[in-house]
Structure formats: C-alpha cells, structure tokens
Amino acid sequence: MNLKKxxxxxxxxxxxxxxxxxxxxxxxxxxxxxxxxxIEYILIPGEMVTVEGFNIYTNLSNFDGAQEFLLDPAASDDxxxxxxxxxxxxxxxxxxxxxxxxxxxxGTYVENYYEDIIGNTEYDFHYLDSIYDDDLGVISxxxxxxxxxxxxxxxxxxxxSYFRNSTKLEFDWNTTEQYNEYNVETGEELLDYYESDxxxxxxxxxxxxxLLSFYQPVSDMLMGFNLYYAPSVDHxxxxxxxxxxxxxxxxxxxxxxINTIDQWQEEFIANTNVIGGDLVVxxxxxxxxxxxxxxxxxxMGPRTERYYEDGISYLFETGPTAIDNWTYQEDEHISTxxxxxxxxxxxxxxxxxxxxxxxxxEKVWFGGAARFSMSAGDTLLMLNYETTYTQxxxxxxxxxxxxxxTSVETGSYAVEEIDNVVTHSxxxxxxxxxxxxxxxxxxxxxxxSLTWNNSFHSEKFSAYAPEEGIITFGDGTFAExxxxxxxxxxxxxxxxxxxxxxxxxxxxxxxxxxxxxxxDIMAFSDLTDLSGWEISANAKF
Length: 541
Prior knowledge:
A hairpin with a 5-residue loop joins β5 (157-183) and β6 (189-218). The longest helix has 7 residues, at 3-9. The protein has a 19-stranded antiparallel beta sheet that branches. By secondary structure, it is mainly beta. It has one domain. It has helices at 3-9, 26-30, 38-42; strands at 55-58, 79-87, 90-115, 125-150, 157-183, 189-218, 221-247, 256-284, 288-300, 303-318, 325-338, 348-360, 364-394, 405-435, 440-473, 478-483, 492-514, 517-522, 534-540.
C-alpha cells in the first residue's frame, strides 16, 4: 500500500501548535482543530506561504484565545495587533498581544468602643483599634510571534519564527494596625500596640520558542520538517517583614515593652529547555487533504528553591535601671538541586503520531483525525535542608555570669524524591464546515480523548543529622545536647493508575462579507444575549 492510499484511508492529526495556544483562529477552534485558518498556517513558517494577500489583524480579529465577547466591554483588556504580507517570495508575519492591569486598594477600619467591667453603668475602659490596608497589584502580559519564510506553494520553502510569552505579576500588601487601651476613670493609657505587615510577591515567567521549517514538494505531495528549541524561566520570590511594637506602660516611668521583627524570603527558580522536531507529509488536492505527522520532544532543566527566615528578635525591658535583654534569631536555609527537573516540565520524553483526512465537496468539508501520544519521564529531586537557631539572653545586671547565655542549634538532612510518570493518550477529533451559500458557512466539531496515567512517587531520607545544641554561659561554662525525633523520618511511596474519557463539542459560524472582509462567530446559542457571543472580524487586501 503506497503512502497516498494510506493517507486517504487513515484518519488524522493536525500539526501541534500548542506552544502558540493563545493564537488560534475561530475556524480551527470550532472544528475541534480539524480545519486550519490563516493563523494556524502563519504560525508554521513552512506553511506561511499559503496565506495570500496583505492581512491585517487587530482587536477585532481576536486571535488571542477567542475570548472576546460581543457588546461586553469587560471581556478582555488585551491589546492585539498583527499583519502578514509578502514581497515576491519573501513572507513576513507579526502577531502581538499584551495586557497590563493595575489594582490599588486602600481601606481603613476603625473600631472605637467602651466597656463597663464593674457593672456600675459607667465605662471603665476605652479601646481604639485602627487598621489600614494599602495593597497594590500589577499584571503585565505580552505575547509576540514573528516569522519569515522564503518560497512559494510550488517550490521549496524555508522559514524561521520566534515566539515569546512574558508574564509578570507583582503584588505588594501593606497592613498597619494601631491599637490603644485606656483607663476611663484615671485617663491612663494602658497599652500602645503597633503592627506593620508587608508582603511582596514577584513572579516572572518567560517562555520562548525558536522554530526552523523546511518544506519541499515531492511529486504530488509535500514533505516538511520543523525543528524547535523552547527555553523557559520561571522565577518566583516572596519577601515578608512583620514588625510589632507593644508598650504595656506607655504613660509610666517604668517601661515594659516588646519589639518583634520577623523577616523572611522565599525563592523559586526553574529553567526548562525543550528540544523537538516533527515530520509532516501532506497531500492537498481539490477533492481531499491528507496529513501524516510524527513529533518528538524532550524537556530538561534544573530547578532551584531557596528559603530564608531570619532576623526574628524580641526586646523586653522592665524598670528604669534593671534591663533584661532577650534576643532570638532564626536562620533556616533550604536549598533544592534537581538534576533532571520535575514532572512534566523537565526530564520528559514526548512522542506523538497521527493522521488527518479532510474530504472536500462544493457544499461540505468534513474531516477526521486520530492521534496517539505517549510521554514518559523520570525525575530525581534532591532536597537538602540546613537549619541554624541562635538565642541570646542578657539578664541586664552588667556582669557576664551564669545568668547570661547564648544557645545555638544546628541540624541537617537530605531527602530524595523520585517520580516516574507515563501517560498514553488517544485523541479522535472530527469537524465539518457546511457552506449554506457563497457568504455563509456553519461549523461543528467534537473531540473525544482517552487518557491513561501511570505514576510512581517515593520520598526517602538519603542523609540525616539530628539537631545538636550547645549553650555557652556568661561565666564560660557550656552544655551540649542532641534533639532526636525519629518518628517523623518515615520513607514514603505510592503508585497511581488512572483513566479518563472525555468528549468536547464546538460550533461556529463564518460570514464572508466580501473578498476583503469576513466575520467569524462562536458561542451564539443564546440569541437574546449578545454579550455572550464570541466574534472575530478579519481583513485582507
């Protein structure tokens, strides 16, 4: 059986454009990925030459995930722009989507109340509590695609494209509280409490894809190779500072107060590098179109986690001359080194194979596809923990004696986490486009997917050193001790087997107003509520 007959008999898969998930046409979505639109062809440099004319894409075109709703101004804040044009046999395409949001919240809560403790119908105490919030959130999203190709439909095509997705999230939470207690009868202030809490979360994700395409007509078929490299960086950081000042005798000559400062930092960094390629064999005739596709990719990259908590201190004073100083500092360092990465992002092999067949008639285009994919990966995650606790006490008598001390506790342990994941899936999409006339067409699509998951996870201690402590007193003496608690040092493992079957349905409508302008619509089931409609308008010259 020759390849041509094989393509006609088998039902298919479309070339995977999952890396450009936000850029997709309504035709592609509403037919379950069976029928490509111009956007899908533009995203593959080797196919870009099939898109003719000078194309203009704006917010009306809605190639950003098809989530613009008609007559609903709150649907999306994305800014969209793009174009595709050619000069002789040189083709260019640029698509860009961006969104920037800033939210600033301010609020004050005041609770002012009195209390009669004795029960003589006169107030004894007055409480005043004021809480002030000042929170700022910033979201920045940018997605850009740029591609260039050389060639024509009848000749060899060579192209290159670059895709970049950047997401930045910044949140700054600030809360201050001022709380006071008063004796109503004497007017004496009994407590002056102040707390300032600041938390900053900074998250930066950058995903890139470099794609190289080679397409060559062979006889009455088209052979295509796509090679890609996709690096990504995820960086997440938490910074927190909590300050508390408590004065228990604000109006007295004898002071009694506690100051607390809690500072901590948490950081996560993941670097992932995906390399892959796919082979495409395509035969596109007036009566039918058949595609055979094989894809392979491998993801790898290290992951690093760091956690710090330090600067926790307390200061306690009593009396105008006798002063007790007690400080406590905690330093905890957690470092993570991952040689292969984690789960699906790194250390993962993925292979897929599939075919697609589309039958074309004057009134109907009907297509079906079959795709089989398998992903497998082994992850070894090494977690190394090191902790240090330091506590210092000075009884305030001005003499270094046995009443003063410094305590230091140290400990460490290492944990190995092993993950083995194997996933098999079968996807069976079908789609149809029915032309009511030269201007109007209806689209339907359905995709049934079957997924089998098998995984193994284990955690075990590879090294352990119990916490050791040493107390050094002011007179030079010291004491040593060991904190041993083996009850929590338990190894753990589990296996998982799962199966999922799911069918999703899609529909759409295309209206060709003229040879230069057309409109696509989805989600129009409620004809009385236009705000729920998804609509895209496109122009070509």
